[in-house]
Fold this protein.
Amino acid sequence: MDFRIDDALLDGPGDHHSFQKQHHGSIRDSDARWIVLLLAALACLGDHVNTNLVKSFEQELKDNFGGLSQSQFNILYFIAPEVNIVLPLAAGFLITRFNLKTPFHWFAVIAIIGQAIVSIALWTKIWTIMVIGRAVGALGGASLAVARSVIVSKWFAGKELSFALGAHLLILVFGRHLGYYMVLWVYNWSAELYLGFLAGTMGCCC
């Protein structure tokens, strides 16, 4: 999963006239739009692993930190949704203000940093660091969700847009389940929870 998507793909067919001329027609009508759809969905699979699997590994997390109280776990779990209350609105403003390319790269880097902090927290077994990592990861992850929607809407129109959004959601749900089993497999193999979440971090980078 590579965040370094070509600028022409981020901008969409309406923003790069020279890119269109090279392909002798509207590139939106070519098969390239399906590649864009796949890349847009894959961009956040690694982020979903670390953001959404906390509840699935509740007991393992409590054991990893030497016995978290329920209130500590609740803070750990709810910090990401709390951060996301107003963040999508801010992300939309940034995309409108700076176009899509620059904010997309910002959001991607922030998401990677957040997931890396989560993995470090699990390794060092410091609860406070994981809370910070979850908050930072949520900053990038929710904003990437907004950016992905913009990318899809730039490349699809009419009835095709509805199908594209549905396929986009399907890929995300599939990736969420795949991420769960990946983390579970790594954890069962290594008995180290941080290695499972580290695999999710690597998914953000590749």
